[in-house]
Structure formats: structure tokens, C-alpha cells
Write a structure and sequence with these properties.
The chain has a single domain, classed as MFS general substrate transporter like domains (Growth Hormone, Chain: A, Up-down Bundle), CATH 1.20.1250.20. The chain contains 17 helices and no strands. α3 runs antiparallel to α16, α7 packs antiparallel against α12 and α12 runs antiparallel to α13. The longest helix is centred in the first third of the chain and has 34 residues. The radius of gyration is 22 Å and the shape is globular.
């Protein structure tokens, strides 16, 4: 018997959409898991230096300026590498681009085990920064290839959470390795994990259309908002575009804040609360657990608003505004005597940073053709790296000559509202950019 449109068992548009979604397939989440693991290892290797800073500083007699030179070298290479990798990955694709980046950063990280001076660490950290700069352009290129727009912020939030997992794992494993063996072994073991990841990545990664485990339904879902094919765009066409500068300036203002946390939090807890290699692990872990929650929550919030009918512009900017407000209490950190109250406030700020960042990272894919996404991310990453260079220089001078973190926490608390205002002024609607 034929059913009427409204009769029992009728297929309504809503039920058809729900059924289609249920049978889409999920291999894109497998790819995302590998991007998440790469980002985690990226931060394990990056965070190893800052976590060992008190140990290495005591052995090699560093002052604040010596350490700031090491961070400056990493930041300078990161800025340069981000700019280069953004373009390289748009031309070579995510698979080969990721491979080049991981090979460089793994070799540099392993070389740290051979270093015997602050100057040596300047060179190895420069090489590390050069290689690690390729992670986010490659990750975002992969997400753009494997996820439709409505899922990208959530996917970005998930892989971006790997930064926090890396920062959580490092305090757990580094003390054990150092106390069991020595600091050199810490570099060897953590670097070897990245090499292992690369072997698996080369085996499993393909673009969706070429992957045997992607069903036709999942491919159709991934390409449901596919843009028309477009040739790679030269940088000269991207620089005049306001949306490029909205992303780049926001990265310049906010990336250095994360780097300040990453490179100086262990030293802050060591100097203010007397913690050391054996006991400042729990506060650092707690902060980055909160950061992880913020990363996923920020992506989930804007993606959920979009799924419920909000515009991309409203969803991204409202989420970023909430995050920017949550950062503000961090300016009072130097006046807090209880270390766990400080942990809570800094954890809220780092969680808010990650929520802000998850949405900021989607702006290139929201506003740019797919062929230009990694290039724009590279430009923004370079801007963020330049900001990282400046924060390294400023932090070294402030701590060497004043001995207080107060000016640094004031900077950390204020930059997000400024960044969001600039984004809104340059891209009021987050509409697709005119790059013709």
C-alpha cells in the first residue's frame, strides 16, 4: 500500500536528513584523531624545554635574558617557518607538508640531547621552531579537506586540544625520565614518539576522494559545501584582503599570550611558590586540563549555534567575546598568595584562550577559498611568531630588571578584547573574501 505524504511511515524532509546523517560514515574522525596526536606530540616536544628550564638553567647558569634568547630563537624560526609552510602545504598538500614538518622538528628535538650550552640550545630551538611551525597549517589544511564548514570549528577545537594534552603529558613523563635517567634521555624519548607517528601517518593519510575507507555518503557530506575549484592564489592577492589581516593581527596579539604561558608558567610557579621539577607538575597539569575543556567547548559552542540557525559571524564572534571576558581576571595573578587559586584563574584564562583560538583558526576557512586556507594560516602564524619574538624579548627584560610578572599578566589579560575588536572592524560579517 502506498503511504501518503503525512501517513504512517512517511519520509519527511527532517527524517530523511536525520537518516542521511546517521549513515554518513565516520572515517573523517579517524583522520582527526591522527591530527590530534600530531598536535599533542608537537607540544610535548615544545613544552619539554620550558619544563626543564629550572634544571637546565641551574646546570648551565642561565639568567632571564639567556632563556629569553632561546625562546626568541624558537619564535623567530616559528614565524619564518609558518610563513613558508603555509605556502608549501597549499602546493604540496597536507600529507607531504606534515611529513616535512615532522622530520625537521623531530631531528631538532633529538639534537637537544647533544647540546652543552645556552648557545647550542639557541640553534636547536631555532630548528625546532622551524619544523613545528608546519603543524597547524597542515592540520588546518587537513580539516578543510575532510570536514564541511559546519563541523570545522568543532574539529579544530578537538585537534587544538592536543596542545593541552601535550602540556599535560609532559609534566607526567619528564620528571620520571629525568629522575630515572637524565635530561638528555627526556629529549630522546619524546622525540622518538614523533618519529613513530610519522610512520603511521604516511600509511593512512589520503585525500577523501582517494581514500578507500571513505563511503560515497561520507564523501558527499564532506563536500556538501564544497567551493568551486580554484587555482592556488599568489601571496600578492592575499595581502590586500582585509580578512587576511583580521586573522593575522588577531594572531599577532593573542599567540604571544599562549607562548608566555607555555614557556614561563613553570618558572612562574618555581619563583613565586617555590615549586620545582618534582612538585610543579600538578598545577601545570590542572591548568592544561582546563585548557583542554576550553578548546573543545569553544569549538562546540560556535558549531552548535550554527547548527541551530545562527550565522557564522554571530556564532564565531559571540563565542570569542565570551572567551575574551573570561581572560580578564588573570591580570591579578601576582597578588594571589594561594597557588591553587592562581591555578584556577590561569586555568580559566588558558581555557578561554583555547576557546578563542579554536574559533580564530576557522576564520580562514570561513572567509577564504580552500586553495588559500593554508597560505592565510601561514601568514597569521608568522604574525603570531613575530608576536612570540616580542613577548620573549619583553619577558626577558621585565623579569631581569623588575623581577615581577605583573606587566606580563596585564598584557595577557587585555589582548583578546583588542583582537576581537580588530576582527570585527576588518570583517564585520565574516563573509567570503573577494580575492579575484
Amino acid at each position: 500500500m502506498t503511504q501518503t505524504a503525512n501517513g504512517p511511515g512517511a519520509v519527511t524532509p527532517g527524517s530523511a536528513a536525520a537518516a542521511a546523517t546517521a549513515h554518513v560514515g565516520r572515517y573523517r574522525w579517524v583522520i582527526l584523531a591522527f591530527i590530534f596526536f600530531a598536535t599533542t606530540l608537537n607540544y610535548v616536544d615544545r613544552f619539554t624545554m620550558s619544563f626543564l628550564r629550572p634544571t637546565l638553567g641551574a646546570q648551565f647558569h642561565w639568567n632571564e635574558l639567556d632563556y629569553s634568547h632561546i625562546v626568541f630563537a624558537f619564535s623567530a624560526a616559528y614565524a619564518l617557518g609558518y610563513f613558508i609552510f603555509g605556502r608549501v602545504i597549499d602546493k604540496l598538500g597536507a600529507k607531504l607538508g606534515y611529513t616535512i614538518a615532522v622530520v625537521i622538528w623531530t631531528c631538532a628535538h633529538l639534537a637537544c640531547a647533544l647540546v652543552t650550552s645556552a648557545t647550542g640550545f639557541v640553534f636547536t630551538q631555532f630548528a625546532l621552531g622551524l619544523g613545528q611551525s608546519g603543524n597547524f597549517p597542515a592540520a588546518l589544511k587537513s580539516v578543510t579537506e575532510w570536514f564541511p564548514q559546519r563541523e570545522r570549528a568543532f574539529a579544530t577545537g578537538i585537534f587544538n586540544a592536543g596542545t593541552n594534552i601535550g602540556a599535560i603529558i609532559t609534566p607526567l613523563i619528564i620528571p620520571i625520565i629525568v629522575l630515572t635517567f637524565n635530561w638528555q634521555t627526556a629529549f630522546v624519548i619524546t622525540g622518538s614518539l614523533s618519529a613513530l607517528w610519522l610512520v603511521v601517518w604516511l600509511k593512512i593519510y589520503r585525500e577523501p576522494r582517494q581514500h578507500p575507507k571513505v563511503t560515497p555518503a561520507e564523501l558527499a557530506y564532506i563536500e556538501s559545501d564544497k567551493q568551486p575549484p580554484i587555482k592556488a592564489l599568489p601571496w600578492l592577492k592575499l595581502f590586500p584582503v582585509k580578512e587576511t589581516w583580521a586573522f593575522a593581527i588577531a594572531k599577532f596579539l593573542t599567540d604571544p599570550i599562549w607562548w608566555f604561558y607555555l614557556f614561563w608558567l613553570p618558572s612562574f610557579f618555581h619563583e613565586k611558590y617555590g615549586l620545582n621539577l618534582t612538585n610543579f607538575g600538578p598545577p601545570i597539569i590542572a591548568i592544561y586540563v582546563l585548557s583542554d575543556i576550553g578548546s573543545v567547548a569553544g569549538g562546540w559552542m560556535s558549531s552548535t549555534m550554527i547548527k541551530h540557525g545562527a550565522s557564522v559571524n554571530l556564532a564565531r564572534k559571540l563565542t570569542m567575546l565570551i572567551a575574551a571576558v573570561c581572560v580578564l581576571p588573570v591580570v591579578f595573578c601576582m597578588y594571589i598568595s594561594d597557588e591553587w587559586v592562581a591555578v584556577g584563574i590561569i586555568g580559566l584564562a588558558t581555557a578561554a584562550h583555547q576557546a578563542f583560538s579554536a574559533n580564530l583558526f576557522t576564520i580562514p576557512s570561513d572567509t577564504m577559498p580552500k586553495a588559500a586556507v593554508a597560505s592565510v594560516v601561514g601568514i597569521g602564524g608568522t604574525a603570531g611568531g613575530i608576536g612570540g619574538m616580542l613577548i620573549a624579548w619583553v619577558a626577558g627584560l621585565v623579569l631581569q630588571y623588575t623581577g615581577t610578572y605583573t606587566p606580563l599578566f596585564i598584557i595577557a589579560g587585555s589582548m583578546y578584547l583588542v583582537a576581537l575588536l580588530i576582527i570585527h572592524l576588518l570583517s564585520p560579517r565574516l563573509a567570503p573574501a573577494d580575492v579575484s
